[in-house]
């Protein structure tokens, strides 16, 4: 008989636990699977823990209560994976949204090859989501899925219902999930090339409150950024650096024209507008583009960034001065000369920034 561990992260799920345990036990009784149920509670303020302890007297349930870490359901899943007694692990939600009847099919798909990740999917043939969803919720889910598609070949990377062998998992201590999309974290950092998808009918929770809120959505964006940096390395940083540079360009243009409105000559305005723009770029790159690297003291790093940017700016300003002085077209359309200078200096600035200013080891 095959043994499996079912990991269920919980936060304020007191109203769902009894029905979940009963349903899992009924389904498992009709299969050739033996199971343990790991309830990993994320510091619930309701009666989740008390109810889990009572249910442990009736079902093969182990309650895990992590201590000494921040509250995060993805981290709860990792705690469950560490504690699982079986090599085959199934992860699912506690809110009865995932069809327990599909657990045997998920487990069976693991036997079709080596290093397989099996995902319960709403978006393959035969799968479906709750038809009661509002258009806004469907659009939100679709867009979140679209953002993750370059990271994995799974059509439903948002799933929280999956099966995997513990022996195929990456080093759990090196994982860095934020929020609740632990399946995406495992697929990407585990470098699973073989992803099987089992169609599921996803249902909305009947009782209790959804954990989805603005904070979780922002955490998802932060999580995606980490995974893009992990998978695409320097290319992801370069694109991010370019996006930050584009925002700095807006700051640059604003001060360039504002100074001229106050009577400053355009060449001087071009030189002065550099300073607010470069300070903006430094701060935003420190927090976002290179935010996962070990940080040096702000003042020192700002000086380094400005010093290296001055070299790039010399190229930038030189191109601007040359084009506006020598080419009538660019003297008439000075904004194009300014853009040409920025493009000419950007690659240099990124190279120096990534190798010198923000050179400390990544933590993604």
Structure description:
This protein is an alpha/beta fold and 364 residues long. The protein folds into 2 domains: 2-232, Spore Coat Polysaccharide Biosynthesis Protein SpsA, Chain A; 234-357, no CATH class. β2, α2 and β3 (61-64) form a beta-alpha-beta unit. The mean pLDDT is 84. The radius of gyration is 26 Å and the shape is elongated. It has helices at residues 17-29, 48-55, 73-83, 103-109, 135-148, 182-189, 214-232, 234-261, 266-272, 274-289, 298-326, 328-332, 334-357, and strands spanning 2-10, 33-41, 61-64, 88-91, 116-121, 162-165, 194-199. α8 crosses α9, α8 packs across α13 (334-357) and α10 (274-289) crosses α11. It has a 7-stranded mixed beta sheet with strand order 3-2-1-4-6-5-7.
Q: Termini distance? A: 40 Å
* Residues in helix, %: 40-55%
For the record, the count of structural domains works out to 2
Task: Describe the main β-sheet briefly.
Answer: 7 strands, mixed
Named at the architecture level, the CATH assignment of the largest domain is Alpha-Beta Complex
CATH classification class of the largest domain: Alpha Beta
What is the H level of CATH, i.e. the homologous superfamily of the largest domain?
Spore Coat Polysaccharide Biosynthesis Protein SpsA, Chain A
Instruction: Give the overall silhouette.
Output: elongated
Find the CATH topology of the largest domain: Spore Coat Polysaccharide Biosynthesis Protein SpsA, Chain A
Ordered list of secondary-structure elements with their pairings:
Layout (H helix, E strand, L loop, with lengths): L1 E9 L6 H13 L3 E9 L6 H8 L5 E4 L8 H11 L4 E4 L11 H7 L6 E6 L13 H14 L13 E4 L16 H8 L4 E6 L14 H19 L1 H28 L4 H7 L1 H16 L8 H29 L1 H5 L1 H24 L7
Parallel strand pairs: 1-2, 1-4, 2-3, 5-7
Antiparallel strand pairs: 4-6, 5-6
Helix pairs in contact: 7-8, 8-9, 8-10, 8-13, 10-11, 11-13
């Amino acid at each position: 008989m095959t043994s499996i561990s079912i990991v269920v992260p919980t936060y304020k799920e007191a109203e769902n636990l009894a029905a979940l345990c009963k349903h899992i036990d009924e389904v498992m009784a009709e299969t050739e699977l033996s199971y343990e149920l790991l309830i990993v509670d994320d510091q619930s303020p309701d009666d989740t823990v008390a109810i889990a302890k009572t249910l442990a007297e009736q079902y093969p349930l182990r309650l895990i209560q992590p201590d000494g870490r921040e509250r995060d359901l993805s981290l709860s899943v990792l705690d469950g994976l560490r504690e699982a007694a079986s090599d085959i692990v199934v992860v699912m939600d506690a809110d009865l949204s995932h069809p327990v009847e599909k657990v045997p099919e998920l487990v069976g798909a693991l036997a079709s090859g080596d290093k397989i990740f099996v995902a319960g999917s709403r978006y393959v043939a035969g799968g479906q989501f709750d038809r009661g969803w509002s258009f806004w919720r469907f659009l939100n889910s679709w867009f979140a899925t679209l953002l993750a598609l370059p990271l994995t070949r799974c059509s439903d990377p948002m799933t929280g219902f999956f099966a995997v062998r513990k022996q195929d998992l990456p080093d759990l201590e090196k994982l860095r999930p934020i929020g609740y999309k632990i399946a995406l974290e495992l697929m990407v950092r585990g470098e699973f090339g073989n992803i099987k998808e089992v169609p599921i009918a996803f249902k909305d929770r009947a009782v209790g409150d959804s954990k989805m809120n603005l904070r979780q959505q922002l955490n998802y964006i932060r999580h995606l950024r980490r995974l893009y940096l992990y998978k695409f390395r320097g290319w992801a940083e370069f694109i991010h650096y370019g996006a930050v540079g584009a925002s700095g360009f807006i700051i640059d243009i604003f001060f360039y024209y504002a100074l001229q409105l106050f009577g400053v000559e355009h060449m001087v305005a071009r030189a002065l507008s550099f300073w607010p723009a470069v300070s903006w770029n430094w701060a935003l790159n420190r927090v976002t583009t290179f935010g996962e690297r070990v940080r040096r003291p702000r003042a020192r790093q700002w000086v380094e960034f400005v010093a290296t940017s001055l070299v790039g700016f010399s190229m930038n300003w030189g191109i601007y001065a040359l084009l506006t002085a020598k080419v009538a077209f660019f003297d008439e359309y000075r904004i194009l000369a300014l853009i040409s200078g920025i493009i000419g200096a950007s690659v240099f600035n990124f190279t120096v920034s990534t190798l010198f200013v923000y050179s400390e080891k990544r933590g993604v």
